[in-house]
Specification:
The structure holds two protein chains of two kinds. Chain A folds into two domains: 121 residues, Glutathione S-transferase Yfyf (Class Pi), Chain A, domain 2, CATH 1.20.1050; 150 residues, Rossmann fold (3-Layer(aba) Sandwich), CATH 3.40.50.11810. Chain A is built from 13 helices and eight strands. In chain A, strands 2-1-3-4 form a four-stranded parallel sheet. In chain A, strands 6-5-7-8 form a four-stranded parallel sheet, with helices on both faces. The longest helix of chain A is centred in the N-terminal third of the chain and has 18 residues. Chain A starts with a strand and ends in a 5-residue tail after the last helix. By secondary structure, chain B is an alpha+beta fold. Chain B has three domains: 105 residues, Ubiquitin-like (UB roll); 126 residues, Alpha-helical ferredoxin (Fumarate Reductase Iron-sulfur Protein, Chain B, domain 2); 77 residues, no CATH class. Helices cover 41% and strands 11% of the residues of chain B. In chain B, helix 3 runs parallel beside helix 7, helix 7 runs antiparallel to helix 8 and helix 7 packs across helix 10. Classes of the chains: A alpha/beta, B alpha+beta. At the A-B interface, helix 2, helix 3 and helix 9 of A face helix 9, helix 10, helix 11, helix 12 and helix 13 of B.
Chain lengths: 296, 319
């Protein structure tokens, strides 16, 4: 299983722990990450660049898809937002040959052409669809028994359902819950799991963004969660990074550790928490790790 | 078929008015909608169950409510599908983000107030034409989708911003605003966009796409909000956190191929001389610094960035 690895901006910026954990966990799982094909790939635009110019965003993503096609490898993402923005762009490009041809004209100078065959996949989907949950279960050396985890998907990995092929691939709808179970933990279901963390408006309306953090983390906690896990580093930046503000809004500490998906995998696969930088979170993971008898 | 519905009830006239769930078991045809089931309950089981409905054909927009946690028109949702989704009892609740008057009936007054706030009528300048105002067909086509809105409030029900901030204009009113901003006959765009650029307007949307999924008519409210952002920036309304954020983000991708997470917040907040805003960033910055999560100070370009920059030039030239 070899993939053209698209790390995204955040795993190389404000969430370096995601990058470290991904590399460690994928190595254990036998998911080979090829860094070469995506070395010159740009940001997806994250939906923000698209506010200014959607055509520009689609062209940048078509370039990334063309690079993946040239490598002959499937594209792997580790960010719900990267995945969703790519899936949406891909849907527009694949459904309109005239549009694809126009976009390709802007790539031709670099000698690139997108043939419409890229199939970007989030690591979460790769676990369920390519690796398989039984295989994942068989690789668990430190089952997270008794550990209660709330899932938090990130909007772009659940909507719009048409771009994400959720009707054709219904297993994607509850993939995160199934992975939580596969590592031996207990799922804490809560209505916020598919809603917005607030990150996109953090720089625009911080009060609203932090209220969303407060609502989701306190709700999950009140339902018994020991931790929350997310396949989206942007959700992580808000749910972890702004939890102190959310706590002051509630006048009491919320104290809910937020794990990146590969960190949760890594814990179950026996990877050293420090190698996955679990000691580098804003909300401490120390108590959590001691409860599962792992020291950070 | 036998089905059971778990309906959230609320009676303001009860001695202690608290919402509660009531289970109803009934028999319906396989072709029945959730609305058919609710009407059957009201007519045959419990005459006190209160709901709004009229056309039963997804035209009037009266029966928006939450089915299994998601906003939908009850008349447009098959019971069999809802049962399959629920894996048991179908959960029926009133629409979200609007106050419940009784059972499944919510108060639409704030909804209409916000639609009124965007002045949803044609505002023209110059002398009136002798007959009707004429617009070229192709200029109106992009409005066909948004004109399909039946004002059912499904998008408002599931909007994640309205859940934390009732001041937000919300997806329905903003989609309606786009309908007039995008109309070639309308001459009030400067004022409209100026209002929409304010707190509670286009920049407060999180782009979560709940409204896109909830809309039974394919209006794509979020897409309209994004188009309004673009039009506001094009019209020169660039002095907002949101516009600066979009601008700085795009510049960063053009410069280095990826986001400069260190400078993006500073630029979005109006630069380092906006002292009050900068002070607010300090605690977050310090916490990140202490945990080794501060983005690199020197923001390196991706290799081969000239190819990405060329795309920017080519595509932006076309606008």
């Amino acid at each position: 299983m070899k993939y053209a690895f698209y790390p995204g901006c955040v795993s190389r910026g404000a969430a370096p722990e995601l990058f470290a954990a991904t590399v460690e966990a994928c190595a254990k799982l036998g998911i080979e990450l090829d860094f070469e094909p995506m070395k010159t790939a740009s940001c997806t635009g994250s939906g923000v660049l698209q506010e200014k110019n959607q055509r520009l965003g689609d062209t940048l993503n078509a370039r990334t898809f063309a690079l993946a096609e040239r490598s002959g490898l499937p594209l792997l993402t580790i960010c719900s937002t990267c995945q969703g923005v790519m899936s949406q762009a891909n849907q527009r490009l694949k459904s309109d040959p005239g549009y694809l041809a126009e976009v390709n004209a802007d790539l031709s100078e670099e000698g690139l052409e997108y043939g419409g065959n890229a199939d970007p996949r989030h690591l979460l989907w790769v676990l369920v669809e390519d690796l398989g949950l039984d295989k994942l279960k068989s690789m668990v050396v430190r089952p997270m028994t008794g550990f209660r985890v709330a899932p938090f998907y990130g909007c772009y990995l659940v909507r719009p359902s048409s771009a994400l092929d959720l009707d054709e691939k219904p297993e994607r709808r509850d993939s995160l819950e199934r992975v939580i179970e596969a590592v031996g933990a207990q799922v804490v279901d809560f209505p916020g799991k598919t809603l917005c963390c607030g990150f996109p408006i953090l720089m625009i309306n911080e009060t609203n963004a932090v209220k969303m953090v407060a609502n989701h983390t306190t709700d999950a906690k009140s339902r018994g969660a020991d931790a929350m896990v997310t396949p989206c580093p942007l959700c992580h930046l808000n749910l972890d990074g702004y939890q102190p503000q959310a706590s002051s809004m509630h006048a009491q500490p919320i104290d809910l550790p937020i794990l990146h998906l590969p960190q949760m995998l890594g814990l179950a696969l026996g990877i050293d928490p420090k190698a996955m930088r679990l000691n580098k979170h804003i909300v401490s993971t120390e108590k959590l790790l001691s409860e599962v008898a792992i020291s950070a | 078929m036998d089905v059971s519905l778990s309906v959230r009830r609320f009676n303001p006239d009860a001695s202690r008015p608290e919402p509660y769930f009531q289970e109803y078991g009934i028999q319906v045809e396989k072709s029945a909608t959730v609305l058919d089931a609710l009407i059957k309950i009201r007519e045959e089981v419990d005459g006190t169950l209160t709901l709004r409905c009229s056309c039963r054909s997804a035209i009037c927009g009266s029966c928006a409510m939450r089915v299994n946690g998601q906003a939908a028109l009850a008349c447009n949702t098959k019971v069999v599908d809802a049962v399959e989704q629920a894996g048991g009892s179908v959960v029926v609740e009133p629409a979200g983000n609007l106050e419940v008057i009784k059972d499944l009936v919510v108060d639409f007054q704030p909804f209409w107030g916000k639609v009124r706030d965007v002045e949803p009528w044609l505002q023209t300048a110059g002398p009136e034409p002798e007959q009707e105002y004429i617009a070229p067909n192709e200029d109106m086509l992009h409005l066909a989708g948004v004109m399909s809105c039946i004002m059912c409030g499904a998008c408002v029900s599931d909007c994640t911003v309205l859940e934390v901030d009732p001041n937000f204009l919300g997806p329905a009113a903003l989609a309606k605003a786009y309908r007039f901003v995008g109309d070639p006959r309308d001459d009030a765009n400067a004022g409209r966009l100026s209002n929409l650029n304010e707190y509670g307007g286009v920049w407060d949307c999180t782009r979560c796409m709940q409204c896109v999924e909830a809309c039974p008519k394919g209006v794509d409210p979020m897409g309209r909000i994004m188009a309004l952002r673009d039009r506001a920036m094009e019209a020169g309304f660039t002095n907002s956190h949101g516009a600066r954020h979009a601008e700085a983000f795009t510049e960063s991708v053009e410069h280095s191929g990826r986001v400069d997470e260190l400078r993006l917040p500073i630029k979005s907040k109006g630069g380092i001389f906006n002292v009050p805003e900068m002070l607010k960033l300090v605690p977050v910055g310090l916490r990140a610094q202490m945990k080794g999560k501060r983005p690199p100070i020197i923001h390196r370009k991706n290799p081969g960035q000239h190819n990405v920059r060329r795309i920017f030039e080519k595509v932006e030239d076309k606008r």
